[in-house]
Each structure stands twice: as C-alpha cells, then as structure tokens.
Amino acid sequence: MESVCMALIDVLDELVEAGKISHSLARRIIYNYNVSVQDNIGKCGVEIGMKAKIIDYRFVESVWWFNLKDIAISKGPLQRRAAGTEMVRFEGPLRVIAVGYDATAKTVKARIPGHNMFEPEDRQLWPGLWE
After folding, report:
1. What is the 8-class DSSP label of residue 113?
2. What's the domain count of the chain?
3. What are phi and psi of 68, to 5 degrees?
4. Could you give the percent of the chain with pLDDT greater than 70?
C-alpha cells in the first residue's frame, strides 16, 4: 500500500512541476486517496496491531506526521497475540500521516473540520508531502 501512495505522490509531483495541475489539486487528490483507503480498511473487519519507536513527529493544521523505526505489525492486537501468529518486523523508517476526522460523518466537508485549509500554494507548509 505504501508503494502505491508513494507512486501517486511521485506522479502528482511531476504533474505539478510540469504545470499540469496546481499544488492544491494535488493535495486534494492525496487527501481523497487517504480517506478512501481509510474507509475501505475499516470495512474489511481485520484488526492490525502495530508497535514502533517514534523518531520524530509534527502536528500542523490538524495533520499528524510520525516518522517511525523498529516497526512490528501483526494481525490482531499485540497484547492478545496467540502463539504462532505471524508478525512482520522491519527497521524502517516508516512515515505515518494521520489526518484527524470524524469517521461517522456522512460527507467529506463534515468529516474534516477546515478541510479547505489545504489551499496554500507554498510547498514550505507541506515539505513532507513532496519528499
């Protein structure tokens, strides 16, 4: 899933650099992708447990950015994991971007308060998005 998101970001970055789309449109596409992925993961009914060490984090305009290392991911909660349950471990780094929203909201406008705040054209406000 991460490689799909990175490929999307790379393509959008190229389109922005070529002047084919604006920065705000690229951010809106990434936002819609993230909302769609979150909604569909929630529907699959599989619980995933993740444990990691935080390298650093930021909170900007209702968006959390976490850079993690020493990640362990398993199906089901880590504390109740039965013997023999598969677990994936990797050193990282892994970037997790969490946009705060109300999952029970019926519309995107109601889901993220101030979601139209993603309008500035200045890359310096969103440096991690284009790395």
Report:
1. T
2. 1
3. -115, 160
4. 54
